[in-house]
């Protein structure tokens, strides 16, 4: 039986203990020739010494952490927070703390399982309440890219090449044309990450979802040689933080985004102030899939740690890849924060610290690299792709801005 904790937020938790045939069936409609059902699935980066003793672990909640920083404080009583929008990050952290007692080893972005001279690396995720905007805008062709991205971007942080992806699509009444659009996006995401769509499941559950709505989850598995795992152990003070740009909000923080949108008085069809796109188009921009770029950078050497910037932003995600006793200094003007985030902050009157703990602010992936590697990466970034020198590793802890 799959055990999932969900409370109408983007936070979800799966407990991994064993593999056995599922003892629960919600009258699913099976898709694809090859399909495996796991009764529990994990997304926790285990210490390598533990990997041979456990199949997986508990995925660390994306929106959790203890490092909080702030540059400025908005004194308005009308300022919005993620908690105001229904997502309690601290409650998520408490749940993680309790689960950690049952399944030690959580804290990273993917779960490792030993296989010969390699590790299989697995990850699972959904796209949160971004689905609400898909329903409202009618844009269903790219939500599948988001789904693939959230898992493959997690497992590539350990240096793993994605091998295959499986999806789960659930709805009250199956609209074949709509489902086809969603799955085309999943296929596109798999192509972008150079993996295959191995299988999936469609569950039709009458009266469970509102008419025209559906839910998605996805599962990715990759592989990395044992001696090539990126685990952050060699990170030292003085190493450089390289940021890779995001395409926008990606796939977290949408509960707060929707609250801001409601406050703004604008519709999804209105133009984003200062830009030539609608709010709907800007918010539905698919999550960047970093797999090919990151694997290419890893192959050239010097990459010591990688953080996927999702819920928790820089505040919570960057420290996850550091050895104890190290922190980060971020250069606040080292990249251009996209207009969309500025609009969200202005309309919602959101504090700097809240923005940086909820959104990626224009940087979707952070690489911790040696100084020598940083010069090469930044030079290459002037051509085929963008990369920014956004900060350094320092002694101490947490994340600060200068």
TrEMBL record:
Domain PurM-like C-terminal: 237-399
Highest taxon of source: Eukaryota
InterPro entries according to UniProt: PurM-like_C_dom, PurM-like_C_sf, PurM-like_N, PurM-like_N_sf, PurM_cligase
Keyword Ligase: yes
Pfam families documented for this protein: AIRS, AIRS_C
EC identifiers of the protein: 6.3.3.1
Cellular component annotations (GO), alphabetically ordered: cytosol
Residue stretches making up the PurM-like N-terminal domain: 116-224
PANTHER family in the cross-refs: TRIFUNCTIONAL PURINE BIOSYNTHETIC PROTEIN ADENOSINE-3, TRIFUNCTIONAL PURINE BIOSYNTHETIC PROTEIN ADENOSINE-3-RELATED
Family as reported in the entry's similarity comment: Belongs to the AIR synthase family.
Protein name in the entry: phosphoribosylformylglycinamidine cyclo-ligase
Organism: Juglans regia
């Amino acid at each position: 039986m799959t055990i999932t904790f969900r409370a109408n937020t983007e936070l979800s938790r799966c407990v991994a203990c064993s593999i056995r045939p599922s003892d629960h069936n919600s009258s699913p409609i099976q898709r694809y020739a090859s399909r495996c059902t796991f009764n529990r699935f994990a997304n926790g980066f285990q210490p390598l010494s533990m990997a041979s003793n456990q199949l997986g672990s508990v995925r660390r909640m994306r929106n959790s952490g203890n490092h909080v920083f702030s540059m400025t404080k908005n004194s308005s009583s009308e300022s919005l927070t993620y908690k105001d929008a229904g997502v309690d990050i601290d409650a998520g952290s408490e749940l993680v703390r309790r689960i950690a007692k049952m399944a030690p080893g959580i804290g990273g972005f993917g779960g490792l399982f030993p296989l010969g001279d390699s590790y299989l690396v697995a990850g699972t995720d959904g796209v949160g309440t971004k689905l609400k905007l898909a329903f409202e805008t009618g844009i269903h062709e790219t939500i599948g890219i988001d789904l693939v991205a959230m898992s493959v971007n997690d497992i590539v942080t350990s240096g793993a090449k994605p091998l295959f992806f499986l999806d789960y699509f659930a709805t009250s009444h199956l609209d074949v044309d709509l489902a086809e659009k969603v799955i085309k996006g999943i296929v596109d995401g798999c192509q972008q990450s150079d993996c295959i769509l191995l299988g999936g499941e469609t569950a039709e559950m009458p009266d469970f979802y509102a008419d025209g709505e559906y839910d998605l989850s996805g599962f990715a598995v990759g592989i990395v040689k044992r001696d090539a795992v990126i685990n952050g152990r060699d990170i030292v003070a003085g190493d450089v933080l390289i940021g890779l740009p995001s395409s926008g909000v990606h796939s977290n923080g949408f509960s707060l985004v929707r609250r801001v949108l409601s406050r703004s008085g604008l519709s999804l069809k209105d133009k984003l102030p200062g830009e030539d796109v609608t709010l709907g188009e800007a918010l539905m921009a698919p999550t960047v899939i970093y797999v090919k770029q990151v694997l290419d950078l890893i192959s050239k050497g010097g990459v010591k740690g990688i953080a996927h910037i999702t819920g928790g932003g820089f505040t919570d995600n960057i420290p996850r890849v550091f050895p104890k006793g190290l922190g980060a200094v971020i250069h606040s003007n080292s990249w251009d924060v996209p207009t969309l985030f500025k609009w969200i902050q202005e309309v919602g009157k959101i504090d700097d610290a809240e923005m940086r703990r909820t959104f990626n602010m224009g940087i979707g992936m952070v690489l911790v690299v040696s100084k020598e590697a940083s010069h090469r990466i930044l030079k290459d970034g002037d051509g085929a792709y963008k990369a920014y020198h956004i900060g350094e590793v320092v002694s101490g802890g947490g994340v600060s801005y200068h």
